[in-house]
């Protein structure tokens, strides 16, 4: 066996090892902080391990349970609001010959085209005049704004991927437009719509800037709790909160990979 043949697997192993370190290194460090009782410089590893900080995080007065409840409640409400707007909008964009369709699709991308900070600062000023600052309604509206990007674009792709001939066959058999939509179109588009809902949910549970300017201090979510802990030097509490946020993100991404098929992805943006 020549040296070149030996170096190829070795180089591949080095590259894969480097990629694994870049991806999993921060996660390993995060996991270590969640169980570190004592970890001071210059020690490379914690000098004490335990679960005392887990107990602190979930004390009734610590606010973690309230923050977790608010996070899930706001995320679910944002999903309902975003999908209630995205389903009719996505169907119309996919099936109707709308004038300036490309411009309409582009408008839904505008919230992601600008930095979040100035957008949410101006929204907070408007919501203050309307009495929505510090309310769940205001936070849900803020979380739904970026969620509409995923919801509308993926819903449009999901409806575009549905075979129109099946709808036409149902109409020829006497089904009404509503019956054809509920029995034929919606079930076929459902996997893509579920994927869109998951994207909105994951975006909402990780949203910090909008919640900070519109909801704080009355409405506290897990990202706000993690920020306050990290700014106060409570790295164990921040790591535990980050781990709680990481679990649904990883789980739901596996679900998205299952539901979001290639034919739907191929039509995103069309």
UniProtKB/TrEMBL annotation:
Transmembrane segments: 12-36, 68-94, 106-130, 136-162, 235-256
GO terms of biological process kind: transmembrane transport
Domain of life: Bacteria
GO-annotated cellular components: plasma membrane
InterPro entries found in the cross-reference section: MetI-like, MetI-like_sf
Gene3D superfamilies (UniProt xref): MetI-like
Subcellular location: Cell inner membrane; Cell membrane
Name used for this protein in its record: ABC transporter permease subunit
Source organism per UniProt: Vreelandella nanhaiensis
Lineage: Bacteria, Pseudomonadati, Pseudomonadota, Gammaproteobacteria, Oceanospirillales
């Amino acid at each position: 066996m020549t040296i070149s043949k030996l170096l190829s697997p070795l180089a591949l192993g080095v590259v894969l090892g480097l990629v694994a370190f870049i991806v999993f290194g921060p996660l390993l460090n995060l996991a270590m902080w969640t169980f570190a009782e004592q970890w001071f410089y210059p020690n490379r590893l914690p000098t004490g391990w335990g679960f005392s900080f887990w107990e602190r995080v979930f004390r009734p007065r610590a606010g973690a349970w309230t923050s977790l409840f608010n996070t899930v409640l706001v995320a679910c409400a944002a999903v309902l609001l975003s999908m209630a707007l995205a389903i009719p909008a996505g169907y119309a964009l996919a099936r109707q010959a709308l004038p300036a369709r490309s411009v309409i699709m582009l408008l839904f991308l505008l919230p992601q085209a600008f930095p979040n900070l100035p957008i949410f600062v101006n929204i907070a000023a408007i919501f203050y005049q309307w009495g929505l600052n510090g309310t769940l309604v205001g936070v849900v509206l803020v979380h739904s704004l970026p969620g509409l990007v995923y919801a509308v674009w993926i819903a449009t792709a999901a409806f575009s991927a549905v075979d129109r001939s099946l709808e036409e066959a149902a109409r020829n058999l006497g089904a009404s437009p509503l019956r054809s939509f509920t029995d034929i179109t919606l079930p076929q588009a459902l996997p893509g719509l579920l994927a869109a809902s998951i994207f909105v949910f994951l975006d909402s549970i990780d949203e910090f800037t909008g919640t900070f300017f519109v909801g704080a201090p009355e409405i506290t979510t897990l990202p706000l709790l993690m920020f306050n802990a990290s700014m106060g030097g409570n790295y164990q509490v921040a790591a535990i909160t980050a781990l709680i946020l990481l679990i649904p993100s990883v789980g739901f991404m596996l679900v998205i990979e299952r539901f979001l098929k290639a034919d739907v992805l191929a039509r995103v943006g069309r």
